[in-house]
Automatic annotation (TrEMBL):
InterPro entries assigned to the protein according to its UniProt record, in alphabetical order: YjbR, YjbR-like_sf, YjbR/MT2646/Rv2570-like
Keyword ATP-binding: no
GO MF entry, a single one: DNA binding
One of the Pfam families matching this protein, by short name: YjbR
Highest taxon, organism lineage: Bacteria
Protein name, as recorded: DNA-binding protein
Source species of the chain: Streptomyces tateyamensis
Source taxonomy: Bacteria, Bacillati, Actinomycetota, Actinomycetes, Kitasatosporales
Keyword field: DNA-binding
Cited Gene3D superfamilies: 3.90.1150.30
Length: 127
């Protein structure tokens, strides 16, 4: 996965935006004002930090040496993924979507509906 592909994948998600709160070199991808991905897109090697279910985070770290505890993040909830081909692209795509979903799931229902998030299908509550 290239930096352009990573950026495009993150921005393809409904309501996603790219911000630069730390410095011009670090892309912070957010939805609803909350972070779901962080990457220095010009970094060598290319890496991305993604939110993850804690139990899954541990399993992924065990299965893939290119997945490590989130760098400068809560290591229980964040993984940093090395994008050098050692982690399959399809898994990286799934991890990006899972990170996004973990964030959107915590947003108010009306914001979830505005994002047309699949997690709201079948639920008519608008709290």
């Amino acid at each position: 996965m290239t930096a352009d592909q990573l950026r495009a994948r993150c921005l393809d998600l409904n309501g996603a935006e790219e911000t630069f709160p730390f410095n011009p070199e670090t892309s912070v991808f957010k939805v609803g004002g909350k972070v779901f991905a962080i990457s220095a897109l010009d970094g060598e090697p290319l890496k991305v930090s993604l939110k993850c279910d804690p139990d899954l985070a541990v399993r992924l770290r065990t299965d893939y040496p290119g997945i490590t505890p989130g760098w400068h993040l809560n290591k229980r909830h964040w993984n940093t993924v090395l994008l050098d081909g050692s982690v399959p692209d399809h898994l990286v795509h799934e991890m990006i979507e899972d990170s996004y979903d973990l964030i959107v799931a915590k947003l108010p229902r009306r914001r979830q509906l505005a994002l047309d998030w699949p997690g709201t299908q079948g639920n008519t509550s608008t709290d």
